[in-house]
Design goal:
heterodimer, A: about 120 residues, alpha+beta, hypothetical protein PF0899 fold, 3-stranded mixed beta sheet, B: about 230 residues, alpha/beta, Rossmann fold, 7-stranded parallel beta sheet, about 20% strand
Chain lengths: ~120, ~230
């Protein structure tokens, strides 16, 4: 249950960003969450909602965009989504592939309402 | 409504501290390893046997993380090597700041190897970089061979899986080949060492892995210093 600590990091970063934009109200927080980040989307949302209750961020939704595990083939450069742990290249069959995304736990955007 | 880009990792503060620690470890030629496994997988036993196998002059230290109690530090301190407990007070993983604080007064130039035993958990420790050179999963045969598929993140990030409690194999339904296959599904490059901390079986291979990894770290340091 490390989602509480992660949600707290989200809240702190969003507040810091909001301070740099006086007069703007945060309306939505966009995050990227990779399949391999080891973070549960529902638990993260629950923790975020709990932390911002009765604060200026109350009711602000987390818009979490899921990123699947994606590999690139070192031989033929094919890029593909890994399904059922099949990491071999679907085009040329090479097993020499490397992970290029799916570990994200990153900010993407803020939606702001300027007053 | 105005959408503005916001960049950066959510755990960037942890990652910043971890990067500083990694740079310090590298500068002083300290190989730092982060041992992760379920409660009861045998992390502390593996460390006990590891320390027993080292000569008195070995420049090794251990950090051991738990939610409560300093039982593990007390167990490991019998080895005579520097051991420090990190008690997280409820947190389910170690983070880089805890490690930074715990080693603040340890002279890194006096160390070659820093072993960190994470809090018993296959999920949360995976997300927190501690500045280690490698993550190692300790998995016991009593846990079942499907664990790599159920907890893929940590197996994906690990360089080595230590399969522990080989002495229990006659009593539990555990398929070693399937366990290896499952871990390789998630992480084709992962290495394996199979041990029993009770009988000592496989421990020479574990020590050999540590020596190999220390030699690599020493080479990298020598190359960096030109």
């Amino acid at each position: 249950m490390h989602e509480l600590g992660i949600a707290n990091s989200v809240v702190e970063a969003v507040r810091a960003e909001a301070l740099r934009r006086p007069g703007a109200r945060v309306r939505k927080v966009g995050l990227l969450l990779g399949e391999l980040a080891g973070v549960d989307r529902d638990a993260l949302t629950f923790c975020f909602d709990s932390l911002v209750q009765e604060t200026e961020l109350a009711g602000v939704p987390l818009a979490i965009e899921f990123r699947p595990r994606r590999h690139r083939c070192r031989r033929c450069s094919e890029s593909f989504v890994v399904v059922d742990y099949q990491t071999a290249c679907p085009r040329c069959g090479s097993t020499g592939t490397e992970c290029i995304s799916g570990e994200e736990l990153e900010f993407s955007y803020l939606e702001l309402e300027e007053s | 409504m105005n959408r503005v880009p916001m960049e950066g990792k959510v755990l960037k503060e942890n990652d910043r501290i971890a990067a500083e620690l990694r740079a310090r470890f590298r500068e002083h030629g300290v190989l730092c390893l982060n041992l992760i496994g379920s409660p009861g997988a045998g992390k502390t036993s593996l460390l006990e046997r590891t320390l027993e196998g080292f000569g008195a002059g070995t420049r090794v230290a251990v950090l051991t993380g738990d939610i409560q109690t300093d039982n593990d530090a007390a167990r490991l301190a019998r080895s005579g090597f520097p051991v420090r407990q990190i008690t997280t007070g409820g947190t389910c993983h170690l983070d880089a700041r805890m490690v930074e604080r715990a080693i603040a007064d340890w002279p890194l130039p006096d160390l070659d190897l820093l072993l960190i035993e994470n809090v018993g958990n296959l999920v949360c420790p995976a997300g927190y970089d501690l500045g280690e050179a490698a993550k190692i999963v300790v998995l016991s045969v009593a846990e079942g061979e499907d664990k790599p598929l159920k907890y893929p993140t940590i197996f994906f990030k690990a360089e080595l899986v230590v399969l522990n409690k080989l002495d229990l194999l006659p009593y539990v339904p555990f398929n070693l080949a399937a366990a290896r296959e499952n871990a390789r599904c998630v992480n084709p490059a992962v290495e394996f060492v199979e041990v029993s901390c009770v009988t000592g079986q496989g421990l020479p291979a574990w020590h050999a892995w540590l020596e190999k990894r220390q030699a690599q770290a020493a080479e990298a340091l020598a190359a960096a210093r030109g």
